[in-house]
Amino acid sequence: MRKLIMIFILGAFLAFPFSVSAQGDTAFSFVTVQLWPEYDQPSMLVIVDFQAAADTALPATLSFRIPADANLIAVASDAGNGQFLDHPFEAPVADGEYLVFSLVVEENKPYRFEYYQPLAFDGESRIFSYLWDNGYAVENFQYLFLEPLDVTNVTLEPTEASQETSNGLNYYQGAAVPLAAGEQYTLNLNYKKTTETLVSDAQAVQIAEPVNEDTPGRVSLANSLPYIIGGLGIIMIAGGLMYYFQWGRRSSGKPRRRSHANVDSDATSVYCPQCGSRAKPTDRFCRTCGARLRHEEG
Predict the structure, then answer these.
(1) Are residues 33 and 169 in the same domain?
(2) What are phi and psi of 33, to 5 degrees?
(3) Do residues 199 and 276 both lie within one domain?
(4) 139: buried, middle or exposed (CB in 10 Å: 19+, 13-18, 0-12)?
């Protein structure tokens, strides 16, 4: 009995410290939290990009906490050229005010997870609070906020470090800060929005440049006219050749008929015995040399 108890205690000791040390020993070289409110639905789209520190022992199982009212939609890994592909993960489980999910990181490259979280609406005002509370040390932590459409003013705490405009959209970037293991990061934001237009809806109908005959993919009659004329010419030549060979084949294969008038005329023709000239059946003398013609008696 004592032996079984010792084995149970030893197993618990080995299992519990391992999971805790794995969380404590793992660090990130960077974590970037992108906040896209009212992008393709009237809520907050949260995109978290991260990469393990260079000295992290891999493979490593990482666990993340997201708010209990969040909807996890994707976990992915960097496939190169800015592309992310789906990455296996364990489905979130409830843990107090959080949902906890985990994934295995096998390579030292960027990974990503995305989820939606509700916004708080107060008339035209939108209020949102983001909390990083995942226990890992981070060398560079920062946020990137995408301003929605038709916004009158934006307030961010902590205040953004820089702002830039791309494709008609405003982006606010927070200053990169280091986080110790177990340290939290909170971002509070609010803005006023005068319409319910989503960013993705506006981008779907946006035209980058005027459409004209030189626009790639557009078919122009002026550019296609030489090909149309050439095609018609080839069709006409082919039709002429077919008619010629078909008509010639019919003509050569059909025997010619001699008329009865010609047959009768040849049968009754009279020729001069002196000069060989042809004479009419009623002639008695040759019209050429005057010699007397010989008529066969019928």
Answers:
(1) yes
(2) -105, 115
(3) no
(4) middle
